[in-house]
């Protein structure tokens, strides 16, 4: 899927993915063409290829990308967008920004929504559904969700902010919905500090997103006031090497992830998440404990030992407990029993030290 072999990439419909631009670095661009330089175009082509999509639009953040998708879809006031119980709160805030209402779908054991729960919450005003691929893992039910929503005329938008390089049964994350958005915010496997990208197949939707973001090279009809959500050539220059090396980074992370998962599995009553067959990008190792208090104890021990730990407690902005939508949602699974540790990118010696320290902590928890 390399960018150096034009004409060989196809999307899930069998069509060409992200045609190669003829722009040459340093070449003078005709007046009025727009403000997307050759580096931005190269970055967009690479992002489209990674998601097996026909095109991409580079934007200032993943939240901006999602808001632009909502605007491009023409969401009307009081229409509903369903979002997952676990997901960054700015996504629900973006729904409110465009005048729509966020509804919450509970998550299951992999912290992702499943089709039966989505179907049960669809209503006459539901216009779109967000499926988040969280903690570096692909949402396993996204194909079934995409099919069910398409039959009902509801748009699926994939939140791939935490899942660069992950793959599900249908292919790379971001390849199933009407559109998908990614983040290059630090931290992450494609981190540049801040930034995002929208990928899709529909040229009209991509052009509408580009127009709303403030890029002048757009043939879209006038949508609304234009925003300043584009990125600069300098930002694209920082991001492009990251996405070009994404496969190497993910492969290295998965080596450490597999070893760390084996160590964490020695903690009594711990159930380590299954991240095989490319479903994860290697960024985290997730663990479920039998109770909330036990999960808090394990998280505290790991944090005290210097590991980067995440746990969806009530006040965490990654969960509805911190959102202004009423009391915390309690779905069929109590997500507070989950925790994960971040997997750093390390060389051989660094990996040995990381795993050695993890064994010490896990041995103490088993005692």
UniProtKB/TrEMBL annotation:
One of its GO terms (molecular function) is pyridoxal phosphate binding. Pfam families: DegT_DnrJ_EryC1. SUPFAM superfamilies: PLP-dependent transferases. The keyword DNA repair does not apply. Keywords: Pyridoxal phosphate. Residues 1-37 are annotated as: Disordered. Its cofactor is pyridoxal 5'-phosphate. InterPro entries: DegT/StrS_aminotransferase, PyrdxlP-dep_Trfase, PyrdxlP-dep_Trfase_major. One of its GO terms (biological process) is polysaccharide biosynthetic process. Belongs to the DegT/DnrJ/EryC1 family. This is dTDP-4-amino-4,6-dideoxygalactose transaminase. It comes from Saccharothrix australiensis.
């Amino acid at each position: 899927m390399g960018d150096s072999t034009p004409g060989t990439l196809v999307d899930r419909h069998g069509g060409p993915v992200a045609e190669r631009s003829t722009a040459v670095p340093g070449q003078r661009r005709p007046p009025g063409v727009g403000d997307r330089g050759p580096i931005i175009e190269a970055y967009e082509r690479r992002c489209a290829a990674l998601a097996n999509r026909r095109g991409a639009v580079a934007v200032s953040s993943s939240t901006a990308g999602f808001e632009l998708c909502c605007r491009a879809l023409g969401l009307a006031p009081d229409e509903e967008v369903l979002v997952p119980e676990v997901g960054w709160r700015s996504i629900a805030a973006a729904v409110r920004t465009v005048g729509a209402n966020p509804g919450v779908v509970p998550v299951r054991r992999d912290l992702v929504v499943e089709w039966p729960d989505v179907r049960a919450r669809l209503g006459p005003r539901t216009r779109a559904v967000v499926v988040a691929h969280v903690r570096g893992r692909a949402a396993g039910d996204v194909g079934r969700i995409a099919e069910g929503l398409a039959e009902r005329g509801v748009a699926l938008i994939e939140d791939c902010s935490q899942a660069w390089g992950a793959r599900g049964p249908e292919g790379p994350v971001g390849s199933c919905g009407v559109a998908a958005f990614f983040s290059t915010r630090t931290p992450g496997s494609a981190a540049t500090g801040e930034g995002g990208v929208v990928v899709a197949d529909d040229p009209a939707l991509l052009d509408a997103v580009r127009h709303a973001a403030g890029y002048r090279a757009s043939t879209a009809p006038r949508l609304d006031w234009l925003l300043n959500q584009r990125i600069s050539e300098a930002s694209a220059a920082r991001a492009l090497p990251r996405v070009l090396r994404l496969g190497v980074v993910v492969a290295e992370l998965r080596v450490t992830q597999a070893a760390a998962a084996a160590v964490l599995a020695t903690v009594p009553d711990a159930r380590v998440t299954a991240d095989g067959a490319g479903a994860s990008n290697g960024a985290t190792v997730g663990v479920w404990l039998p109770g909330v208090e036990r999960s808090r104890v394990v998280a505290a021990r790991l944090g005290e030992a210097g590991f980067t730990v995440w746990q969806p407690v009530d006040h965490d902005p990654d969960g509805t407990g911190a959102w202004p939508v009423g009391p915390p949602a309690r779905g069929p699974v109590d997500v507070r029993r989950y925790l994960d540790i971040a997997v750093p990118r390390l060389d051989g010696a660094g990996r040995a030290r990381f795993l050695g320290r993890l064994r010490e902590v896990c041995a103490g928890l088993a005692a």
